Amino acid sequence: MTDTEETEHKSLGLPSLIATGVGLVVASSCLMSLGQGAGAIGTPFIITMVIACIFNIFTVLCIAELNAVMPNLTGGLAQYTMACLGPFASLVLIVGGYIVSNITAGSVEAAMFGNSILTAFPDLPVPPVVFSVALIVILIVVNLLGIDIFAKVQDVVAYGLIISLVVMGFIGIFGLGTGEVVEQPAAVSTDLADIMSLLGLGFFLFVGAEYIIPVSRYAKNPRKQVPIALIGSLVLILVMQIIVVLGMANYTPWGDLAESNSPHMLFGSALLGPVGVYWMVIVSCFAVISTVNTILSSLSRVIAGMAKIQLMPQIFNKKNKRGAYWFGILLPGAAMIIINISGLTSSDQLTF
């Protein structure tokens, strides 16, 4: 299974590949899970995260090997599943595990963007759905303009997100915040059962690095860069999250983190007051933009890969003049817009 008849513009360097890997993983929901996991057992949650990261590294090493064996596939993920398990399993797993779930996740992330804007500017006479839909439309246009524009946006938001969280974490670690330092034990629980019980939550903090694969054929040196980017993005995320947890320990009571629906906002407020809230709103917006941008770009290529093996209509394999799989961008984008306009993203069921 190869697409050797196509030539691609090799424009993505290692930093852009890592930014893509970071993009889907570090979402607003990830920031919430990080705070709640830390609040449950304290700094021992770092052990949980390290174990989860190692499991995910094993996973991406397998994916990197598949990419080395079949380097020129469009999307990659669908063809890998097709080769391993056949057409039915590939259709079920990719449609359910990637297309439906990521359209839903992208819709919720876009809704969080609108809510974050209103958190920072509560007096705005504009409903949050307007900001959510505007964001989706802008990112649809960005992705229709091709892989180069996608990469530029991704680099800015992904590294802006990581740098911001690392800086805030270090401010917390060294007690440099304007808020009151909290006196509390570093560990709520050191019981191995408690540490391992949160492994599912910890695993969620690293899921999504494989979204590097759909854009890997645009890498300047994919054989070397893809494995480094897959592992590098996970390690970078782990280091950032460890720094944030250690920073949280000095400024936010563990119990408050565990009970909060927005623990990252709680941390920002406790660390730097109103400035911390606005900063964390910017971080949340970066996370949302990074996630939705990655979903639209990579998902369109995954679906195009399915079209190449006759699991999707051939219209998904059509490109515009910029080399973007336009229908695979427009359809998920339109679905996200409809979900947001319908109000489903504000329902308790979808939030759950």
What's the count of strands?
Answer: 0
Strand content: under 5%
Which percent bin holds the helix content?
over 70%
Structural class: mainly alpha
**Overall geometry:** globular
Low-confidence stretches: 1-7
Mean pLDDT over the residues:
89
Please tally the helical runs, counting DSSP H or I stretches of 4 or more residues.
15
Largest sheet: none
Please tell me about this protein's structure:
The protein has 15 helices and no strands. The protein has 352 residues and is mainly α. Residues 1-7 have low confidence and may be disordered. It starts with 13 loop residues before the first helix and ends with a helix. The radius of gyration is 20 Å and the shape is globular. Helix 3 (45-69) runs antiparallel to helix 10, helix 4 runs antiparallel to helix 5 and helix 5 packs across helix 14. The longest helix is centred in the C-terminal third of the chain and has 35 residues, at 274-308.
Annotation keywords:
352 residues; 0% strand; single chain; disordered N terminus; mainly alpha; 15 helices
Structure described in brief:
The protein has 352 residues and is mainly alpha-helical. The protein contains 15 helices and no strands. Helix 3 runs antiparallel to helix 10.
SSE layout and pairing:
Layout: H1 14-25, H2 28-41, H3 45-69, H4 77-85, H5 87-120, H6 128-144, H7 147-173, H8 192-197, H9 199-204, H10 222-251, H11 254-259, H12 263-272, H13 274-308, H14 326-342, H15 348-351
Helix pairs in contact: 1-7, 1-10, 1-13, 3-10, 4-5, 5-6, 5-13, 5-14, 6-13, 6-14, 7-10, 7-13, 12-13, 13-14
